[in-house]
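Figure 6 in text form: structure in, sequence out.
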């Protein structure tokens, strides 16, 4: 039995127990494809944000794992040329290494957000105190470099579990993932990356790209203008993640009236 099938079976059993609500919530998360690894829960947690339910043709362009001394400045030049503001989920220790790049991105209107301090890919398995330290150290770096701190973050690899979700909530964070990833093992060229986004994009989408240390990230740089031009031809407008979250909260308030 596959991991996903075992997860569904375990969650189905939990639905019949005292954990009914939490298990149902987690089952919904799995059904829509969140990369969750650990699944014990005893209460409802806030679900990660993957997109904004909307009919408006808006999307958020996001980059993970930077800054990088070569790729990030190239991306900033491209985004400046097209007048697009993006959201950069930075690694705290890399932001400290290349602070001028972070400052430049912030000056040019981009959002600098939290992607943990060391990019621990086992973040969800750490103790709450260690998770909190990963997040708070990065928040301090971002705040000192940009003067802004946002109440959301993206975990490495997008791995989320109950432990991480509850720790995030306790510290006032929302978890932001994505609905479309340009990076995929089947997308080996910038053109294929752009085509992958074009085929999967929907109104309110959050697009995942990278500007980290790996040599292949040149493809993200080259794919960026292809994506921007194609989506604009399709009538899309680019916004930042905070703008999407503001619209999400506004939608919730309207539904409760």
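Output sequence:
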């Amino acid at each position: 039995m596959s991991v996903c099938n075992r997860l569904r079976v375990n969650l189905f059993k939990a639905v019949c127990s005292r954990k009914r609500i939490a298990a149902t919530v987690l089952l919904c998360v799995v059904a829509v494809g969140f990369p969750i690894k650990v699944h014990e829960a005893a209460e409802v947690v806030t679900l990660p944000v993957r997109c904004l339910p909307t009919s408006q043709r808006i999307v958020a362009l996001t980059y993970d794992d930077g800054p990088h001394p070569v790729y990030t400045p190239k991306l900033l030049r491209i985004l400046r040329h097209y007048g697009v503001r993006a959201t950069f989920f930075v690694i705290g220790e890399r932001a400290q290494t290349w602070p001028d790049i972070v400052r430049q991105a912030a000056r040019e209107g981009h959002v600098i957000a939290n992607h943990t301090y060391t990019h621990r890919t086992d973040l969800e398995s750490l103790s709450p105190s260690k998770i909190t330290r990963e997040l708070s150290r990065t928040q301090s770096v971002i705040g000192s470099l940009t003067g802004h701190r946002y109440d959301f973050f993206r975990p490495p690899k997008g791995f989320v579990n109950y432990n991480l979700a509850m720790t995030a909530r306790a510290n006032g964070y929302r978890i932001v993932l994505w609905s479309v990833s340009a990076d995929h093992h089947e997308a080996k060229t910038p053109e294929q990356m752009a085509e992958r986004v074009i085929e999967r994009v929907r109104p309110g989408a959050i697009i995942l790209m990278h500007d980290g240390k790996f040599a292949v990230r040149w493809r993200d740089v080259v794919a960026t203008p292809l994506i921007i031009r194609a989506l604009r031809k399709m009538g899309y407008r680019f916004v930042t993640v905070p703008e999407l979250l503001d619209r999400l909260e506004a939608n919730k308030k309207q539904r409760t009236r």
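Caption detail: The beta strands are 58-66, 87-90, 111-114, 152-153, 174-175, 180-181, 205-210, 237-239.
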